[in-house]
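Sample log: Potassium transporter.
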Amino acid sequence: GSGGSGTSRWVDGSEVDSDERPPWSRWDDEEFKSRHGSGSIRRRLVKKPKRVDSLDVEAMQIAGSYGHHNKELSLWHTLALAFQTLGVVYGDMGTSPLYVFSDVFSKVPITSEVDILGALSVVLYTIALIPLVKYVFIVLKANDNGEGGTFALYSLICRYAHVNLLPNRQSADECISSFKLKLPTPELERAFRIKDVLEKKSSLKTLLLLLVLTGTSLIIGDGILTPAMSVMSAVSGLEGEISGFGTDAVVIVSIIILIALFSIQSFGTSKVGFTFAPALALWFFCLASVGIYNLFAHGFTVLRALNPFYIYLFFSKNGKLAWAALGGCVLCITGAEAMFADLGHFSVRSIQIAFTSVVFPCLLLAYMGQASYLLKYPTSANRIFYDCVPDGFFWPVFVIATLAAMIASQAMISATFSCVKQSMALGCFPRMKIVHTSKRLMGQIYIPVINWFLMTMCVVVVATFQSTTSIANAYGIAEVGVMLVSTTLVTLVMLLIWQTNIFLALSFPVIFGTIELVYMSAVLSKITEGGWLPLAFASFFLLVMYTWNYGSVLKYRSEVRDKISMGLMLELGSTLGTVRVPGIGLVYNELVQGVPSILGQFLLTLPAIHSTLIFVCIKYVPVPVVPQEERFLFRRLCPRDYHMFRCVARYGYKDVRKEDHHSFEQLLLDSLVKFLKLEARDIALESDLNRPDMDSASVRSQDSGPSADTSEDLRTPLMQDQRLTEPEEELPSSVIPAEEDLDPSVEYELCAIKEAVDSGFTYLLGDADVRARKNSWFVKKLMINYFYAFLRRNCRRGAAVLRVPHMNIIEVGMTYMV
């Protein structure tokens, strides 16, 4: 088990030398004091040299080599990725020519060419400003080690300022190689001021969290509306083509396609990039060629729309109607957010190349072609996309359009899945079953509950609204909402992390925020005509996510409050006041420091407890990925003869917990053995200071030889003597073949652990119930006792989430009063 893999893994050995006891341990139990006198211990504590943490040194070596993506991709590889982005990222924006103009001109009747040129001008400048300037050149740079999306921005901010509401940050997390923060100097002071303000005011932390949750819940709302909108727009092309094909038929066909689309989700999106990219490449080619055909057939007058003066004319002519029509224009940039949210699968460069060289020109041609057709035939506005297709090409275009619409929906559905997974990892979403559909690509996941929920909602939306115009009203709000959230967060990143010049940093929200707010005001005016829908979805998800986060934070705080004091542990002695039987007990809990109160419950309810106890805490840190070799952090709890350890297993929010319990146990064990050797080596190195005591110590260690019988009291007379042995090059263990001069106490401990392993692992879980205190506010009681309790009952419970085998579980009930 621990051959090759054991050697490459290292564990953080800092702050764990058994002489570096926390002050409250009274240096040790009475027996030890009487033997050594407390003075010498204090002296040793003082003499202790400051040691470079092994983790730091090795993290420095690997910090450069380990990257979430190696960004220096070869040119061909980047082009291949850019081709794939067409299928995953740009589907949504690519399908918008299906419905933009028909929606705009349902609000503004065409009376002169100013209407058409003005609307075209608005669309062209919107595409140039928001996706091109804002997303492609600015927002994409605010990624978190190659991850994008609102949660990635939030985790980036969490790394710089302690704004996470869950207080489980450890200084050791900052040594994870993907955690490294790059801070330039000039604007540092301002960044620190902002950081201080954010960290001191809990109201601001909550506000930031609510902002992020709003963004995420709007993205989930998008996941419902995009499929409904795109599929229905594509199918509605049949209305004018087949006689007797009315609205009901469109609705039924759309629903059949949607059900098919959601049913194939469980097969995974592993081939999604390469199967979808050719279809969308064909679609973009088709958009461009139809556009060029129309420009040549109906004249180049529309090029005048490149003059932004037409925007002014459009507004002065149509007034309030023009403002309402903005709700249609904003649909040309739906899916701009997906560029950022799906960044994890691609590289920044590939997304930039694809947008500037393919997507942007093709969309411009498509809109210009449609406008030039409208100048000739102003009456065909409501079916403009299919009308301007040259005769005889209807069916091929229809098939490609339907495919493109399904692919666009696919992109939004996968963005929804990854959003939900990230929020689960950061403790903001009830735990659900996540299926990993690809062996190679981590990001590709499928969440059954969310999938069926989206499908039901999609079908309901199509069946009740029955027209793309009302869906479009809903759609605009969700899109613009997400954009406003990311504008705010990127501004914060600019000020706090990039430390951009203040004028540049503030011009970003001023320019783009203004455009988005104007659009927001236009789409909000449509609240009664379908705009309430995404707001209803968003507030539902916001409630779920905030309740879950609030409950989890309160539960964590009460765990910290109730933890067992060290004094009590030392009073109990190394038997813990009960019988210790061979075996390893893995106590799962959320604390990163101290002894959790759940141990008390186990000691009260079980007649005996395992000879080795490891408190396992599975913790998500605000980085996308934690390298396997940096996963486990070990600490020793209590004196050596207690055989109690704390292990923090750290995962990033994109990490997949794929390991089954066997490999997890093996990893844990390798890390523990490694940790014990590191600890012994550090103590040995220190012992050079205390050379004179050498002989007596070695004699004493011969007398007491390691006893093999672990059922007797696990107290070794050698408690402190092992620090008087020679420093060794590589400390062996009983799990790794033994060499000669092994410190007896380490050898004894490793023997005890080996014996414990032979007796097997047991998982000790707490089945926690969280209740609000009697004197709490009514709202708090409602949230905790009803909503949060309901979510806890219906999400995945401990055993399933922690991936532990059902055979070896012992659970005790705990009630936390919060």
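Observation: The mean pLDDT is 79.
Observation: Residues 283 and 400 are 6 Å apart (CA to CA).
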